[in-house]
Specification:
single chain, 229 residues, Jelly Rolls, four-stranded antiparallel β-sheet, 43% helix
Length: 229
């Protein structure tokens, strides 16, 4: 467990990030230090490409990304990688599996760049502490809302990857990004290989399809910057 002084230091440095985290929604600022102490939170740093949570390990911790970025990935029996989603600062990860009481993780969380993570034992979140902290009930409600939102996001990805062709998957994903950003011009959080892994298609086939769509005047793109025409 982090010492009280360390928690104050974390709160000062990452206060803006923690306020964005869905777990702490509508919880008063004065309770944040007490909450970190109650939850036994610990801050850990990870290098780029380091596996924060490994597929097959126990699903015990809930993570909050404080800096950098990460990806939730799944590897099948043959070693093929599928990107489930990205993780940005202020977002939770691992909560669905920890709350479900799964003995092992079906996915891995990998640092996409050097990052810092706040780790919380899920047992401290799900069970009311002996101190009877007034914010604990609100935190559990926040967690349930987060799980519901993640469930919707998961079904949206299933809708995209269920399309029959690479072209249909790509256009469905770009339409989703247009809806999310409210603009026909946007940046996606993936490079070409990562986009192929997210859509669960072959990279060369994806690149060929992007080229066709550009020639047809359906879209324009430069690296991860896309415009729907």
């Amino acid at each position: 467990m982090l010492k009280f002084q360390q928690k104050e230091k974390i709160l000062k440095k990452y206060f803006g990030i923690l306020r964005k985290c869905s777990l702490f929604s509508e919880i008063e600022d004065r309770h944040l230090i007490a909450m970190l102490s109650c939850l036994g939170a610990k801050r850990v740093s990870f290098d780029k490409k380091y596996t924060i949570f490994a597929q097959g390990n126990s699903a015990k911790y809930i993570g909050i990304l404080l800096s950098g970025s990460a990806q939730i990935v799944r590897h099948d029996y043959y070693g093929n990688r599928s990107i489930v989603s990205g993780v940005m600062p202020g977002e939770l990860f691992g909560e669905s599996f920890a709350c479900a009481g799964m003995e092992v993780l079906p996915v891995s969380i990998v640092a996409n760049e050097p990052c810092e993570v706040l780790l919380i034992d899920s047992g401290h979140v799900l069970h009311t502490c002996t101190n009877g902290c007034e914010f604990h009930r609100r935190m559990i409600y926040n967690l349930m809302r987060d799980l519901a939102a993640k469930n919707i996001m998961f079904h949206q990805k299933l809708d995209i990857t269920a399309k029959r062709t690479t072209r249909e998957k790509l256009l469905a994903y770009l339409a989703y990004m247009e809806q999310q950003t409210g603009k026909n011009e946007f940046e996606i959080p993936f490079d070409r290989q990562e986009l192929a892994d997210y859509l669960e298609v072959d990279r060369s086939g994806l690149s060929a399809e992007i080229g066709k769509l550009r020639r047809e005047g359906v879209l324009d793109c430069r690296k991860n910057h896309f415009t729907l025409l």
